[in-house]
């Protein structure tokens, strides 16, 4: 049992929306905002380890530019002066981008990811690169070459993963906003465990250019925030067409903030049976999910159960498709061009030897496990039985979701099976760890949007998240329902560290 | 087995990689340019840096469609795959290529003699970088170190795969020559083998003549010229025939052609063949050219070598696969033929002069104006110049331009008029009465004797053909 008590009041830190308003209006300098956040990071990140790298000088310089713009009467943008925590698999020009892996040691990208460009263009201020499971492979941020991140609500527990650093940073008040990447739940699961909002947009709504790939057909960048409105603001800044990403949709992205506050009156909301009853769902998580549905019903939504039968095969299909793509995406880390190189300089040390030494030393065990799984799944003679079949499951999941959306506007389910677990509790058994993503994976396979909203606590007093799922490009409606859920939710617990201003 | 070489049929299928002459690379906006300072035409995408993504070059797709159209392929919706293997000149350690659903499928190429060679596919893919191994025998595992130039990484290629329809070295050479002509004509590739923009792998097998089943094939790589293509196929066919003749079996394998030793050597056997773990490239979307686009490409396709040969052949009164016709079209000399035709001249004579004298000095072609060529052909045709003289004048025209009449006059080239020639013939006959008696009696081999004397007497100005005609007339 956690030493912490029951839920406390909602943290009193200002929202991203209010910070941007104040900075744009000249009521508060961006420099002040940045200093306050850097100070909080300096005080508390030693305990949390949300960041691989804090960008103090860069953030102060950016804040000064924003303040100068305001002084000149220029509009610094919709995210003016808002600190943002960037997952360390998003490329930042001239700034180390590690993916929490030794294999990228010393590498500094010569370019910014499209989302980073858009953030900076909108006046946001990156304050640091956050920790993750190596190459985003994991559900606890324990698979980092630089040590685990701890959950701000209980330092003995994991923040979830793989975007645990960004989730913890937002929960701990190190930044009002964070960016993560979600391949099988890597935004939503840590958001749920850290008691914040986390969003995986429709595949193709946010450009992947500059996101170091894990599984290209599943990866999607999305926001962390402490409120639904803040998450919507961030998503609206980063979404939209990008000629540098062929898989990014050419049409304008749906507005996440279009219908916030419109309520759920008359909407048909379905609780997905296969998610609510998935393997390992804790009773308290199931209870919060039902309570969330009841709250929406009380607000005028029509709530019922709905089946998405193929969703039960999601986890199995995912652990073939994602490792298969990863085995190819991670081939380039070979010591030839950048990052780590471990070579035997004697005549015996040929190129194959260098590949083996470099990759053996550079990758951690989980990454190696997935490279092997994926290599096997794509091998001649096995392709149809594994990768081919998994792709067919994917088609079935899409079909079943589409069928469900014939009768429902929005679907609901748990986000993670449990509240945050103890550090080390699941590291010995990869399959147990993989089960963390059982409720989040189906949306990645379908390419559909889904987000988590904090809704009450577990028996241990730690946050629980409820997942809102929408059809492709249904972000406006998804955020509308998420906002209603947020309004009906019990107070969010306050983290034990980096507590809010008095 | 006691078979001799003549009892064997060599069966060849070729895989030709043609670099497309787009301004930029296949998936990024880096310059596609040969011979630049190493590693200057590179960016995050073609270096495969983490986080970078490919975006398909529309012009490359259009060039691929031109090639497909010219090769009578079906142009179809297609996708890209990843071909996974480790090699330092491949920045991502996979190559983006088309696999089971290529943009062009099921076409054919007609050799100049009209025989059709099946085209299985002509697909798009990216080129690799270029590795130079320093030390050892120039192979990676023997090298002290290796240098990699990524300027070529990501350059667009179309790989054209023929059916195993070729039957010997001449066939293979003719096919590559014809394919190169088509590629150049479509504007899709410059076809320069010497710069590596056209590279050929050959699948070679042998079988007893009359056998319909194929023998076991070997794929030969590193063929950088038509000469090495021919030598490698010859060597490989001999190697396979002697293996079989000695009661051994040919192993399916990939072999490397070594230009210096003139041999092929085993690179890897079928068992050692890479498992490329192909899977659909998730970073790209399918390529599905609209029917309007396909139609527009077909409409805009330039006239191809086969049609050009047909029209030259018709004008010259030759067959389309006569060597002079092939040469004139390969070198793009048709404007000279056209000029001669327009002036009412002798197109056949024009084609012979172009295929022989002009082809030999084709680098100087800019000095030869169509007018001068027309005039020269007319002079030879009318007998004002002998063939030998016409060749001399043409040579000078190619070396330093000018007016053929002036050149002929300056060099005192003028074929003797008929009257003058008759007088010389009379003189020579009178001077050699014994030989004349024998010639008149039917000893034709003495023609050369008389022509020689006539040439000497006229200082080479006599047209041998006209002279021998006079001799025959005189004999009666």
Question: Which labels suit this protein?
Answer:
heterodimer; A: 502 residues; Amidase signature (AS) enzymes; eleven-stranded mixed β-sheet; 11 strands; 37% helix; disordered N terminus; B: 476 residues; Arc Repressor Mutant, subunit A; three-stranded antiparallel β-sheet
Give your account of this protein's structure.
The complex is a heterodimer of chains A (about 500) and B (about 475). With about 500 residues, chain A is an alpha/beta fold. Chain A is about 35% helix and about 10% strand. Chain A contains 16 helices and eleven strands. Chain A has helices at about 15-25, 30-50, 55-70, 115-120, 165-170, 190-195, 230-240, 275, 285-300, 315-330, 350-360, 365-375, 385-405, 430-435, 440-445, 475-490, and strands spanning about 50-55, 85, 125-130, 175-180, 195-200, 220-225, 270, 300-305, 410-415, 450-455, 465-470. The longest helix of chain A is centred in the last third of the chain and has 24 residues, at about 385-405. Chain B has about 475 residues and is α+β, with helices and mostly antiparallel strands. Chain B has three domains: about 5-300, no CATH class; about 305-410, no CATH class; about 420-475, Arc Repressor Mutant, subunit A. Chain B is built from 15 helices and 14 strands. In chain B, α9 packs antiparallel against α10 and α12 packs across α15. Chain B is elongated, with a radius of gyration of 29 Å. Chain B starts with 7 loop residues before the first strand and ends with a helix. The relative contact order of chain B is 0.10. The mean pLDDT of chain B is about 90. The interface between A and B is large, with 45 and 31 residues.
Strand coverage percent of chain A:
5-15%
Largest sheet of chain A: 11 strands, mixed
Distance between the termini of chain B: 62 Å
Overall 3D form of chain B:
elongated
SS class of chain B: alpha+beta
Could you describe the largest sheet of chain B, including whether it forms a barrel?
9 strands, mixed
Report the strand count of chain B: 14
CATH superfamily (homologous) name of chain A: Amidase signature (AS) domain
The largest beta-sheet of chain A arranges its strands as 1-3-2-4-6-5-10-11-9-7-8
Q: Strand portion of chain B, in percent? A: 15-25%
Rg estimate of chain B, integer Å: 29 Å
Q: How many domain modules of chain A?
A: 1
Order of helices and strands of chain A: HHEHEHEHEHEEHEHHEHHHHEHHEEH
Uncertain residue ranges of chain A? 1-10
Domain count of chain B, please report it.
3
